[in-house]
Design goal:
Elements (H helix, E strand, L loop, with lengths): L1 E10 L5 H18 L2 E6 L3 E9 H12 L4 E11 L11 E4 L13 H11 L6 H13 L1
Parallel strand pairs: 2-5
Antiparallel strand pairs: 1-3, 1-4, 2-3
The protein binds flavin mononucleotide.
């Protein structure tokens, strides 16, 4: 079953840019053979990752990611079956976003910003809206 999983976490202070590069290298090596694609946004303090692929494969990957010491307080926002992928062509699209406050792109409405803040707090799980926002970030 094709599924999509979204989580947020806190980036630990030991997670330097070099470690981010190592994470991306792991994504590049491991995700394509598993048909896992997605998006990873990161700031100085946070990670937001959306992964898409076979449900069981995603769960196995999530179990591994959850115990990674480069982040903590990993919190699943949503995990749902999907008909088709929203990010089919990225083994893991990446984008660094603003530090303390999220550096919102200008075409985000106030409502979108508020929604995104709620999402970072784990209070939102409207999948379609999250995807739209992630796309906005990737394109900005
Ligand atoms: C925020 C975050 C996202 C990650 N995303 C992935 C991922 O999509 N795919 C992956 O294989 N590893 C990912 N990792 C790394 C895994 O936790 C783990 O270190 C890696 O899969 C080990 O790869 P290896 O078994 O090839 O050594 C992520 C780690 C962090 C902290």
């Amino acid at each position: 079953m094709l599924a999509q999983l979204l989580y947020v976490s806190n980036r630990n202070s030991n997670c330097t840019q070099e470690e981010i590069d190592n994470i991306l290298a792991a994504c590049k090596k491991n995700n394509p053979p598993l048909y896992i694609t997605g998006v990873l946004l990161y700031s100085e303090r946070k990670f937001i990752q959306l992964v898409e692929g076979d449900f069981n494969t995603l769960m196995t990957l999530y179990d591994k990611i959850k115990i990674d010491h480069r982040h903590s307080e990993v919190m699943m926002i949503s995990c749902s079956p999907i008909k088709e992928k929203s990010f089919p062509s990225w083994h893991m699209a990446t984008k660094k976003i603003g530090a303390e406050t999220i550096d919102y792109s200008t075409d985000m409405t106030e409502q979108d910003k508020a929604f995104f803040d709620e999402m970072l707090l784990g209070n939102e799980s409207d999948g379609k809206r999250v995807i739209k926002l992630l796309k906005t970030f990737l394109e900005s």
